[in-house]
Amino acid sequence: MGRIVVTEFISLDGVVQAPGGEDFRYKDWTFEFDRGDEGEQFKTDEALGAEALLLGRVTYEGFASAWPAYEGELADKYNGMRKYVVSSTLTDPTWNNTQVISGDIATEVARLKAEVDGELQVAGSIRLAQELLEHDLVDELHLMTFPVLLGTGRRLFADTTDRTRWRLTGSRTVGEGVLITLFERDRA
Predict the structure, then answer these.
(1) Where is the Bacterial bifunctional deaminase-reductase C-terminal domain positioned along the sequence (predicted)?
(2) Can you list the alpha helix ranges (DSSP code H) found in 29-84?
(3) What is the SS3 assignment for 166?
(4) Cα 9 to Cα 123: distance, rounded to the nearest angstrom
(5) pLDDT in tens, 14-37
(6) Could you tell me if 147 and 176 are in contact, meaning their C-beta atoms sit under 8 angstroms apart?
(7) Phi and psi at residue 54, in whole multiples of 5°?
(8) CA 112 → CA 60, 103, 120, distances in Å?
(9) How many domains does the chain have?
(10) DSSP character for 177?
(11) Domain holding 24: CATH number?
(12) Range of the domain at 38
């Protein structure tokens, strides 16, 4: 059985919008901070540890337009691994090893989670991450918190119909005060 891991760049006030692209008042805001070698290694190790990517359409399109042009271990991983994109509009994905998921997302992702052995990594994909949290399908949260209050923008944590409990499994500070926190869903 697979595990769903949501990984996000996040501000102190919970904003996850446009950390490295897209049209937004503070576009590329994470690039203002040095994550240091340890932060860069964490992100590389995290990506290399994933079995597959599970992405929303907007994040998928950003990844699909960028990663095929890169070379190296991380690019090889992203370009070669299985990718699942949740979309009601995308019908013909062009990035290697991509499958479109549509219909009832909670049902389809639960099925996918049962079929895939290993980590299904959700990077960015705000709306998808919120829906997965709402349906209690997320097993781990990996948050890289940047020391900035943006004051505006889309936030990761939206209202949910029920509360869930999480256990901190790791934390460290890297680079210029960037905090990495790892949380595991506490189902006890």
Answers:
(1) 4-179
(2) 36-48, 57-66, 73-80
(3) strand
(4) 9
(5) 999 987 666 788 888 999 999 999
(6) yes
(7) -125, 110
(8) 17, 13, 9
(9) 1
(10) T
(11) 3.40.430.10
(12) 3-185
